[in-house]
Amino acid sequence: MRRYLVLQDGSVYRGYAFGANNDAVGEVVFTTANVGYPESLTDPSYRGQILVFTSPLIGNYGTSPDQWESDSIQVSGAVIFDLTMPSHYTSIMSLNEWFRKEGIPGIYRIDTRALTVKLREVGVMMGAIADDVNKAVKLLRDAPRYDDVDFTRLVSPSTPIKYGDDDKLYWDY
Question: What is the DSSP secondary structure assignment for residue 143, as one 8-state letter?
Fold first, then answer.
């Protein structure tokens, strides 16, 4: 199934759908990390963002909870070059299955390196992932800007939790 990434400057990237059959809006950012995609996807600092991976091998070792930074995927959506099947012995599900389970849309067969160059030159911008270009444009027009939402409050713990027997307090996510 076709899926589109539309940026606020009007750029349209055509790819294929993976993950949930949902739409997403968020600030489009990139990571050049070559390993650790489950850690990046579950990192609370990416909440509300559409994460572009420049590494071409995403999905190759699946996912397992010991690789997660939090209990769920934090990104609004993901953009990858190729969706590969997992081949690691600790994998409990594929990237596609994980995204479906968590209700997160993804798009693949995008030239993520060219997109990254654009983001480096122009700066991060809002984007939308949808199965129709006009729908993505409308989502972008109607969505709040990224800096209008207090994502820090959304990912920060509301109360401290004590671990161990010492008197130090740690925040529970």
Answer: S
Look-up: residue for tokens 């529970």?
Answer: 172
Domains of the chain (ranges, CATH numbers): 2-171 (3.50.30.20)
DSSP 29-73: EEE--SS-HHHHHT-GGGTTEEEEE-SS-BSTT-B-GGG-SSSS-
Instruction: Provide the 3-class DSSP secondary structure of residue 152.
Output: helix
**Whole-model pTM?**
0.86
- Separation CA 95–CA 73 (nearest Å): 11
pLDDT, tens only, 71-102: 789 999 999 999 988 888 878 899 999 999 99
d(CA 170, CA 31): 28
164 Cβ neighbours under 8 A, 6+ residues apart: none
Of residues 135 and 62, the one with the higher pLDDT is: 135
State the CB neighbour count (10 A cutoff) for residue 6: 25
